[in-house]
């Protein structure tokens, strides 16, 4: 995330930057692919709000890149997810909406294939939900896992047919 430090200790939203690499050692800054909002105070991307943990996934069916991210207000009471789309991983991304999935707070998150995994209940449980076919929303079914086990900065991977 590209950001500027605010006087009150928060980080102003400037936007989400994209970096590319051919070898995972040398990186090139591709610029800001989703810009923050300077003037509209009620917009989720207003510079006074919080944008964290952006993740981009490609949808083979629609040919779109879909960005999911944590959006919050300066006091961390909004605790929502938001979605933006683009025809290119280098943007520009178009901001679509924010919401609280299944009426739960949403904090740290990751995307794995067609699944959104996020922490909730003060990071004391994880929720897993399948995305819709276009990856623009979540399905109704949600599973709670690792209940009463504090988790932050989660990541998911598969090794020998087991998901970790």
UniProtKB/TrEMBL annotation:
Q: Which SUPFAM superfamilies match?
A: Arabinanase/levansucrase/invertase
Q: Which GO terms describe its molecular function?
A: beta-galactosidase activity
Its GO CC terms? Golgi apparatus
Gene3D superfamilies xrefs:
Glycosyl hydrolase domain, family 43
Question: Please, one GO biological process term?
Answer: classical arabinogalactan protein metabolic process
InterPro entries the record matches:
Glyco_hydro_43 (IPR006710), Glyco_hydro_beta-prop_sf (IPR023296)
Q: Which keywords describe this protein according to UniProt?
A: Glycosidase, Hydrolase
Name of one Pfam family that matches: Glyco_hydro_43
Its family remark reads:
Belongs to the glycosyl hydrolase 43 family.
**Protein known as:** Glycosyl hydrolase family 32 N-terminal domain-containing protein
Q: Which taxonomic lineage does the organism of this UniProt entry have?
A: Eukaryota, Viridiplantae, Streptophyta, Embryophyta, Tracheophyta
């Amino acid at each position: 995330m590209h950001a500027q430090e605010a006087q009150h200790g928060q980080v102003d939203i400037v936007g989400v930057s994209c970096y590319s690499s051919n070898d995972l050692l040398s990186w090139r800054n591709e610029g800001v692919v989703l810009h923050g909002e300077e003037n509209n105070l009620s917009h989720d991307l207003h510079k006074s709000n919080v944008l964290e943990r952006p993740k981009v996934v490609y949808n083979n069916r629609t040919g779109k890149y879909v960005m999911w991210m944590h959006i919050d207000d300066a006091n961390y009471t909004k605790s929502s997810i938001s979605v933006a789309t683009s025809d290119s991983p280098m943007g520009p991304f178009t901001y679509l909406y924010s919401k609280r999935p299944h009426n739960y707070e949403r904090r740290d998150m990751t995307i794995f294939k067609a699944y959104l995994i996020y922490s909730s209940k003060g990071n004391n449980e994880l929720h897993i939900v399948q995305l819709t076919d276009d990856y623009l929303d979540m399905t109704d079914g949600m599973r709670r896992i690792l209940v009463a086990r504090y988790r932050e900065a989660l990541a998911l991977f598969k090794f020998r047919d087991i998901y970790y």
